[in-house]
Amino acid sequence: MLESASNGLKIVIVGGFGVGKTTMVQSVSEIRPLSTEETMTQAGVGIDDASFVRHKTTTTVAFDFGRISLDEQMVLYLFGAPGQERFWFLWDRLFSGTLGAVVLVDTNRLSDSWYALDRLEHHGTPFIVARNNFTEPQHTLEEVREALDLSPEVPMIECDARKRDSSKAVLVALARHLYSLSTNGAAGETTA
Q: How open is the CA angle 119-122-124, to the nearest 5 degrees?
C-alpha cells in the first residue's frame, strides 16, 4: 500500500438497490474497503423493494470506499453509491470531482438504472454500463442498450462483480473510455 501518493483519481459506481456496487468495490480494492453496510430492518419494508434480492440482509446507507494503486504517485479511489431511492440525495455530492462512473445494471430490473443515468448526464460525467451477471442475464448487451436508450458511444461490458478480474476489466474499460474521450476532445480542439 502506498503512503506517498500525490495524485488521486475518483471513480463512482452507481446503480439500483442490490445490483452489486458494494461487491464490486470489495472484490477489486487493494485495501480493506470502508463500508457503510447496515442490517436491513423493518423500517425499510414498503420503502425498499427487496423482491429481487430476497437474500440481501444488509444495505449501504452512505457509500463504500476502496483504493487501487496505479503507480508510486497515483491512486484510484472507488466510491460505491447507495442504491435505495431514500439515499439518492448523497449522489450529487459523491459525483463532485469524479473522473468517471460505472453504472451497474441487473437485467431483471433495468428501470432501476434510470436515475443513475439521469444524474450522470445531468452532471456531464462520462460513464460506461456494466451488466452484472449475478444470475443468468435476461437480455443481451444490445437489448440492454436499446432498453436504456444509450447512444452507441457509451461502452457496455458484462461482468461478475464478485470476481476481481471481472471488476478490474470493468475499470479498465472505463479508463479506456475516458482516454478516448480525452484524446478525441484534444483532436477536436486542434482541428477547430
A: 110
CA distance 92 to 80: 13
Least confident of 53-57, 71-75, 142-146: 53-57
Encoded amino acid at 25, one letter: V
- 52: DSSP letter: T
Residue type at 18 in one-letter notation: G
Neighbours of 92 (CB within 10 A): 11
165 vs 171: CA distance, rounded Å? 10
What is the chain's length?
A: 192
pLDDT for 188 equals 52
Closest CA to 95 of 118, 70, 67, 68: 118
Q: Which helix or strand (DSSP H or E) is residue 129 part of?
A: strand 127-132
Helix 21-28 vs helix 164-191: angle between axes, to the nearest 10 degrees? 90
pTM of the model: 0.79
Task: Give the CA dihedral 162, 137, 135, 58, nearest 10 degrees.
Answer: 70
Residue 14 φ then ψ, to 5°: -125, 165
SS3 content of the chain, % helix, strand, coil (to 5): 40, 25, 40
CB 180 within 8 A of CB 100: no
Contact at 8 Å (CB) between 101 and 11? Answer: yes
Task: Report helix, strand or coil for 12.
Answer: strand
